[in-house]
Amino acid sequence: MLDRPSYLAQLTTAARRSPVVALLGPRQCGKTTLAWLFGETRQASYFDLESQPDQRRLQNPELALGSLEGLVILDEIQSMPALFNVLRVLVDRPQTRARFLVLGSASPILVKSVSESLAGRVEFVELAGFDLREIGANNWQSLWLRGGFPRSYLADSEADSLAWREGFMRTFLERDIPQLGITIPPAALRRFWTMLAHYHGQVWNASELARSMGLSDKTVRTYLDILTGTFVVRQLQPWHENIGKRQVKAPKIYLRDSGLLHGLLGLPDWHGLTGYPRLGASWEGFVLEQILRIVAPTEAYFWATHGGAEIDLFFIHHGRRYGVEIKFSEAPKVGRSQHAAVDSLNLDHLWVVYPGQHAYPVDDKVTVWPLRELAGLSDQMG
Questions:
Q1: Tens of pLDDT along 12-46?
Q2: What is the mean pLDDT of residues 274-281?
Q3: What is the Cα–Cα distance from 230 to 292, expressed in whole angstroms?
Q4: Where, residue-wise, is CATH 3.40.50.300 in the chain?
Q5: Which residue has the higher pLDDT, 241 or 315?
Q6: What HEC string does the chain produce?
Q7: Residues 6+ apart with CB under 8 A from 188
C-alpha cells in the first residue's frame, strides 16, 4: 500500500474541526485502509456495517456508541442509514467524548441522510484512487493505463490488473447497485456504462444516447445520475456568462477512473491504448482528474461556444481566473480557440498540459506545462 499523506492530513484537520467526518469515494478506492491508518495513532473503535457481528453489536446503537471515547469508525454507513439520527443525538450531548468517522460509497444516500440529520455537524473528505503525487510522476503511463484503484494499479501484470477491473465492474453492477435499493438490471446498466465510455469527454446528449439504447431521455438521465452518485462518472458543468456568444450549456461526461474506461473499451495494454482512435479523449479525462485532485479548485468547469472556442478546464482561485487545455502531443499547438478563451474569459493564465518533458511559455498568458510537473502548478498561481 502506498502512503497517502495528503488525505491523512485532510482527515486530521477535518476531525479537529467537526464531530463527524464523512469519507466518501467509490468502492475499493482505499477508504477502509486509510481509516485504519488514521486510527492507528488514536484510540479507535471500528465497525464494519456490512458485517453481521458488527450489526449485532449495534442493535442498540445509542447505548453502544454513546459509551465510546476517541475515534469511532463506521464503515459503509449507508448500510444502516438509521445511524445518522443516532449520531446527531450523540454529537449534541455535551458528555460525548468521541469523534466519528463515517465511510460511504454512495453520495446520494449519504449526503441526503447527512443533510437531514447532521447539518452543521459534518465535514466531507472525498477519496479517489492513487494520483501522481502518490505513485511518482514518472509512473504516469501505468497510472493512466491501469487507473488509480489500488488493486488495479498494484497488480503483478497487465492481465491481472484488467481481470481485477472486470471483477470490480461485475460486483459493482450485480451487488453494490442493488444494495442501494436500485432495481435496474445489471446488463442494462453495463450497456449504458459501456456506451458512456465511447462518449467519454463529450457533451452530454440524452436524446442521442436514449435513441441508441431504445430508452427514454428520463431513463438515461437516471442511469447517469446513479453512476455519478457512486463516484464512477463525472459530470463537468459548463461555465457561461454574458459575453455575447452562444455557449454550450450541457455538461461534459467523463469516466473518473481511466482504468475502468480502458476496461470498458477493451484496451488491455499500452499497445491497445496507443492505437485507440480517441486516445486524446482518454488522455483528457486522465489529466483532468489529476488536476482536480492535485490543484483542488473549489469549483471547476469547462467552457465552449457553438462557434468553436473552448477550453477543457476553467476555475477561479483566490479571485484569479485560470484555464487548462489538455493535449496529447509532444509539440502542442496553441490555436485561435485557446486565445479566444483567454480573451473572452479574461483569464489570468492558461496552461496547456502535455506528456512531454519541459515547461515553456507561448506568450505572457499561455504556458505549455508537462504532466510530470503537475504538482508544481499550484505554485504558479501564487
A1: 999 999 999 999 999 999 999 999 999 998 999 99
A2: 96
A3: 18
A4: 5-126
A5: 315
A6: CCCCHHHHHHHHHHHHHCCEEEEECCCCCCHHHHHHHHHHCCCEEEEECCCHHHHHHCCCHHHHHHCCEEEEEEECHHHCCCHHHHHHHHHCCCCCEEEEEEEECCHHHHHHHHHHHCCCCEEEEECCCCCHHHHCHHHHHHHHHHCCCHHHHCCCCHHHHHHHHHHHHHHHHHHHHHHCCCCCCHHHHHHHHHHHHHCCCEECCHHHHHHHHCCCHHHHHHHHHHHHHCCCEEEECECCCCCCCCECCCCEEEECCHHHHHHHHCCCCHHHHHCCCCHHHHHHHHHHHHHHHHCCCCCCEEEEECCCCEEEEEEEECCEEEEEEECCCCCCCCCHHHHHHHHHCCCCEEEEEECCCCCEEEECCEEEEEHHHHHHCHHHHC
A7: 223
pLDDT value of residue 242: 72
**Backbone φ, ψ for residue 27 (5° rounding):** -55, 145
Q: How far apart are CA 89 and CA 62, in angstroms?
A: 8
Q: Tell me the pLDDT tens digit for each residue of 201-225.
A: 999 999 999 999 999 999 999 999 9
pLDDT of 179 reads: 82
32: how many CB neighbours lie within 10 A of its CB?
Answer: 16
- Inter-residue contact 246 to 306 (CB < 8 Å): yes
CATH number for region 5-126: 3.40.50.300
257, 28 Cβ separation under 8 angstroms: no
Distance, in Å, from the CA atom of 208 to the CA atom of 224, rounded to the nearest integer, reads 14
- Full-model pTM: 0.93
